[in-house]
Amino acid sequence: MSVGAALARTRAEGRAALIGYLPAGFPTVEASIAALHAMVAAGVDVVEVGLPYSDPVMDGPTIQRATERALAGGARTTDTFRVVEAVAETGVPTLVMTYWNPVERFGVHQFAGRIAEAGGAGLITPDLIPDEAADWVAASDEHDLDRVFLVAPSSTQQRIESTVAACRGFVYATAVMGVTGARDATSTDAPTLVERTRVSADAAGLPVGVGLGVSNGAQAAEIGAFADAVIVGSAFVRRLLDAGADHDAGTAAVAELTADLVSGVRGPARAPA
After folding, report:
1. 87 found inside a domain
2. Catalytic residue among 13, 45, 48, 248
3. How much is the pTM?
4. Domain extent at residue 112
5. Residue 48: active-site member
6. CA pair distance 217, 214, nearest whole angstrom
7. If DSSP codes are grouped into helix, strand and coil, which group holds residue 46?
8. What is the pLDDT of residues 83-136, one digit of tens each?
9. Domain-located, residue 272
């Protein structure tokens, strides 16, 4: 199933989708696969697999710690493809979240080909803007991959329009300015940003997902009331960090958090759009 098909299904059900993120290779490659499988089994609709990178400038301290440990443990780009393949085999659409430098170093078309071979759905590229994405647009078209770009509260309406036009799968709306990380409260900018983005996204037939800050089911329900997808990353990573070397406990904690988030997005149904 494609990302678009998964989000069309959840919209028809009158609810938001839940998109969950974890980095490949943390705490180990096999443990990251087990945690992502647990996330899928507990009801996540779409998965993001993070590619560990040595300069994650847009990530907060939680994800930075996890990716540093993944790299120190020997995780490499090829391991990300392995994790994608293991998760995509479950039938849940699986995207890669990556900074652009590793893709360029690997080779844009080669990277796209490996993601397609692994059964991946496409890429989320937080530091790549559509104006500089000609090679990726060509490669994603060649391999029929989704390309997800980001809009932020600071984005002009013109920038939002050009970003939506370049997206395939969904549009990623970052709910707060700054780096990623779980927060005690969701951003008050999120509803306004989604409303601004929908002007173009609805015309393009694209869902809008909101990320940055969601850490529990109540927040997921709050975001899910106005967004098509709720994106959660740091809260999942924190569960694995807290578990330390007890990988089974970490996997169980990820499953528990997923269940809480699922209860949020599957709360009182919205009218199908």
Report:
1. yes
2. 48
3. 0.93
4. 3-265
5. yes
6. 8
7. strand
8. 999 999 999 999 999 999 999 999 999 999 999 999 999 999 999 999 999 999
9. no
